[in-house]
Specification:
11 helices, globular, two-stranded antiparallel ribbon, Peroxisomal Thiolase, Chain A, domain 1, alpha+beta, ten-stranded mixed beta sheet, 30% helix
């Protein structure tokens, strides 16, 4: 067995639903981030890439089932470079990195490009296919943008509530107030804006040019003027007396991310030194409606496998699907909230489902480099009751 390392990470800016990236197909988004990531390692011959493992939560439309392979071809890589697409919903690109790290550690591959993409704007409507032709009644088109679709009637009703209602239940269970959620959301926007203004994201971003020739260079959803007073005026989105609003939940988004992984011996061929080691992995599952709380066990398992504890961790990147679920996880871990999403989170940056895990890894590795601290955790909740987590060990500079 050998170790697996993160060498480079990049992502597109994340666009708002029907925003600046609305005219860019998901396969083109993925191809652009692949090209942009490989441009950062000009010494790497693309033919040296042993596999491409790509995340995508939809696959029903222009994603074309195996968007990873489509993106490799569109990016102009040699046709000899294979690619597959994995779907673990919101955790798809983090799952892609975990699968790649296992392949590297077992010796099945030496260099693997991972990542993910989602265009929630361009996700199609689907129709159930009739069992016989020419049905006499109407047929309803179902959106594939987010959440359950064409639900199997055998599924218990409590499992198939909307994502918002599931998190309303989480707020009830842990008594997390609307005020705390709004405060958390305001913090996300403020920290994201501060990080962008300070140049933190500059080297992590691959600008995307749409068909009109306009380049998006910054995450589109950040609202630096957000205040708790403004968010308090928003109406609950899922219950008339609820606590979850459009302001304290992540928005529908478009975007792509990429992470280049390799063995230690691959550094000479990649042409740069690694920046972080994949030190621990964790996966967990709970009742589907409790999916927001699933990262608690996933991160604890990843830490145990890395041989460290929360006391060693200097940076946490936790996907903010909803403010309430992020707060529930932070409370359960009993960690300093200041180390969580210090450069903003998904509430401000956006959450293009298949791309978010790659964003977490890229941001976490950069935070560890910047702080010269040793250990960090990336974790993400996943619809239908799952979660993934990764422990990174900084291998650059004088990490402590």
């Amino acid at each position: 067995m050998t170790d697996s390392y993160l060498y480079s990470a990049a992502r597109t800016p994340f666009g708002r639903f029907s925003g600046a990236l609305a005219h860019v197909r998901p396969d083109d988004l993925a191809a652009q981030v692949i090209s942009g990531t490989l441009a950062r390692t000009p010494g790497l011959e693309p033919a040296e890439i042993g596999d491409v493992i790509w995340g995508n939560a939809n696959g029903a439309g222009e994603d074309n089932r195996n968007v990873g392979r489509m993106a490799v071809l569109l990016a102009g890589l040699p046709t000899s470079v294979p690619a597959t697409t994995v779907n673990r919903l919101c955790g798809s690109s983090l799952d892609a990195a975990l699968i790649a790290s296992r392949a590297i550690e077992s010796g099945d591959a030496d260099i693997v490009l991972t990542g993910g993409v989602e265009s929630m704007t361009r996700a199609p409507w689907v129709l159930p296919k009739p069992e016989r032709a020419f049905l006499p009644g109407d047929v309803t088109a179902v959106s594939t943008t987010l959440g359950w679709r064409l639900i199997n009637e055998r599924m218990p009703k409590e499992w198939t509530v909307s994502l918002g209602e599931a998190n309303e239940q989480l707020a009830d269970r842990f008594a997390i107030s609307r005020e705390r959620q709004d405060e958390f959301a305001v913090r996300s926007h403020r920290l994201a804006d501060d990080a962008w203004n300070a140049g933190f994201y500059d080297d992590l971003i691959v600008p995307v040019t749409d068909r009109d020739g306009t380049a998006l260079r910054r995450d589109e959803g950040i609202r630096p003027g957000s205040t708790t007073e403004k968010l308090a005026k928003l109406k609950p989105a899922f219950r008339t007396d609820g606590v979850i609003t459009a302001g304290n939940a992540s928005p529908l988004s478009d975007g792509a991310s990429a992470v280049l992984l390799g063995s230690g011996s691959a550094a000479a061929r990649i042409g740069i030194d690694p920046v972080a080691r994949i030190a621990g992995r964790g996966v967990s599952a709970v009742d589907p409606q409790m999916f927001g709380y699933a990262p608690v066990a996933a991160a604890d398992r990843a830490l145990k496998r890395a041989g460290i504890s929360w006391a060693d961790v200097a940076a946490v990147e936790l996907n903010e699907a909803f403010a309430v679920q992020a707060l529930a996880c932070v409370d359960a871990w009993d960690i300093d909230p200041a180390i969580v999403n210090a450069k903003g989170g998904a509430i401000a940056l956006g959450h293009p489902l298949g791309a978010s895990g790659g964003r977490l890894l890229g941001t976490l590795s950069r935070r560890l480099q910047e702080s010269e601290r040793r250990w960090g955790v990336a974790a993400i909740c996943i619809g239908v009751g799952q979660a993934l987590a990764v422990v990174l060990e900084n291998v650059t500079g004088s990490s402590r």
